[in-house]
Amino acid sequence: MAKAKTASVPYLCGECGWETAKWVGRCGECQAWGTVVERSAPKSRVQAGPVTLPALPIGEIPVEDSQARSSGVPELDRVLGGGLVPGAAILLAGEPGVGKSTLLLEVAAQTARYGHRTLYLTGEESAAQVRLRADRTGGIQDELYLAAETDLGAVLGHVEEVKPTLLVIDSIQTISAADLDGVPGGVTQVKEVAAALIRMAKLRNITLVLVGHVTKDGSIAGPRVLEHLVDVVLHFEGERSSRLRMVRAMKNRFGPIDEVGCFDLSSEGIVAITDPTGLFLDVRHGNVPGTCVAVAMEGRRPLLSEVQALVTHSASERPRRTTSGVDSSRVAMILAILQQHAGIRLHSFDVFVSSVGGARLNEPSNDLAIALAIASAFHGRPLGRQVVAVGELGLSGELRRVRDLDIRLSEAGRMGFRSAAVPAEAPEHIGRSRVMDGMRVVDIDNIRRALDILGMSADEAAAQG
């Protein structure tokens, strides 16, 4: 007898969860062959049964056992909103080789160092390989237990035996259940394995940390429901050419989602960076043209980053526009604004714009710094080592206000900068110069006025062009 069609969309892909009304040989979403299968018939309706714990008035629910404790890594505590919460499920995702395993091994070692029993289960490496990394990074602790497992039943058995307060699974895509269909890492396996681990962690008040893979476009691999099941979703990112790594909170039930943690990854392990501003500033003697310092906000933390620009005559009919660390489409818009509203003709010049130290400057508040760096390179005049610029450029050349301006200026003053160009807060403040945090702050309304104040007027730019 044929299976009953139990859903309006009876077929789905076993790899990515894509649904279709009829069977096809190739998934229309992930383009995998032979992964589209028919949904199974639904089980019988669940009847009411005994409850695990009785319902209580919300004011009588004890919270002492759910207080966050430090992970031993201050930057991670900053992102998590205080530390590791017992019973919480945390998903850490990132590209291969970015340092996820190194970071979590450091967290496990620090947790064990404070006397909390920790279990680290690896499905991608052997136990000996993880031990070698722990020897290199100083992660050998008596309360840190290590095992290599890929079966869900064996994982639960290790938890019964060790009784940890912190459980690290590296990674969720390598764990499978023998009684479930599908390959390890598939939609069915990931969803059910994650649900079983999270249920166990909450019943035993264990902090669970899952390592997740990402796809080529940077999203977390597997079903989207995985991100809904966990309490915290963290993204670990960084350029391969740089030692700087950043942890961003994409979802956090216990704290803010706009915090960023900074780390330095080296052969000796991973170290938290509590003051990363200096990493994005070029150290040199003297002033050179084509540079300007921006103040970007990474979460709630202001970071000073240097922007460098190079403008040269083009030998081709189509000048080059090359960027690194900044948004290429935003740079193209800034070039159009400079040409239209500041008189800087760049149609016959190659323009190269880059950030220093591997910083990613995608925030609109960096527009003014990029524009001033390009204008400085075009004129061959340095802006000075003690100048910062903050502001978003509009298409009509006006300078728009940005958030957290006081925090940005305070950080610039702490780093020793003496002048700042910022958007005017009101029309009567245009051209006003005031002192704030030891800096001379100039209120500017448009890009043309900014160039005039810095001695790069539109008339000079037109004469040179």
Automatic annotation (TrEMBL):
Entry GO MF terms: ATP binding; ATP-dependent DNA damage sensor activity; damaged DNA binding; hydrolase activity; zinc ion binding
GO biological process, one term: recombinational repair
Alphabetic keyword roster: ATP-binding, DNA damage, DNA repair, DNA-binding, Hydrolase, Metal-binding, Nucleotide-binding, Stress response, Zinc, Zinc-finger
Keyword ATP-binding: yes
Sequence intervals crossing the membrane: none
PROSITE patterns, sorted: RECA_2
Residues of the RecA family profile domain: 65-214
Region span, Lon-protease-like: 350-465
Motif residue range(s): RadA KNRFG motif: 251-255
GO terms under cellular component: cytosol
UniProt keyword annotation of Transport present: no
Binding site for ATP: G94, E95, P96, G97, V98, G99, K100, S101
Purpose of the protein: Plays a role in repairing double-strand DNA breaks, probably involving stabilizing or processing branched DNA or blocked replication forks.
Domain notes: The middle region has homology to RecA with ATPase motifs including the RadA KNRFG motif, while the C-terminus is homologous to Lon protease.
Similarity remark: Belongs to the RecA family. RadA subfamily.
Protein name as it appears in the record: DNA repair protein RadA
Organism encoding this protein: Nocardioides marmoriginsengisoli
